[in-house]
Amino acid sequence: MKKIFQQISILISLVFLLVLPYFVFAAGSSPLDRLHNTGSGASGPYAEADATTMSSIIGMVINAALSLLGIIFVILIVLAGFKWMMAGGNEEDVSKAKDRIQTAIIGLVLTMSAYAIWAFISSYLL
């Protein structure tokens, strides 16, 4: 049972890693569209520089990192709930699962507040 659970968790994590770029670029165009636009707009050997600044690149990196952290904390909550359900009345396993859920919720709240602070900073101050 433990080996099957490990294989399923590895499969789920690999699927999330493969699908993650589409969550990051969900608000804008896809990376392939950006490459096509860049290649078609070139006049001569070099294209003109666009309005991408260091702050926008840092903002995209921070958005991606906070999104990844949010996904990780939700996965931790689901795994702790699964452990709680499979505890079979063992109080030690139930208390471990409760502690894991508590810490994952605290981490999720911290991540969401960091995202809210970043959204405020990027929209009003940058």
TrEMBL record:
Which spans are transmembrane here?
57-82, 103-125
Please provide the record's keywords in A-Z order.
Answer: Membrane, Transmembrane, Transmembrane helix
Q: Which one Pfam family would you cite for this protein? A: T4SS_pilin
The record's section on InterPro entries has: T4SS_pilin (IPR043993)
Q: Under which name does UniProt file this protein? A: DUF2976 domain-containing protein
Source organism of the structure: Candidatus Falkowbacteria bacterium CG_4_10_14_0_2_um_filter_41_15
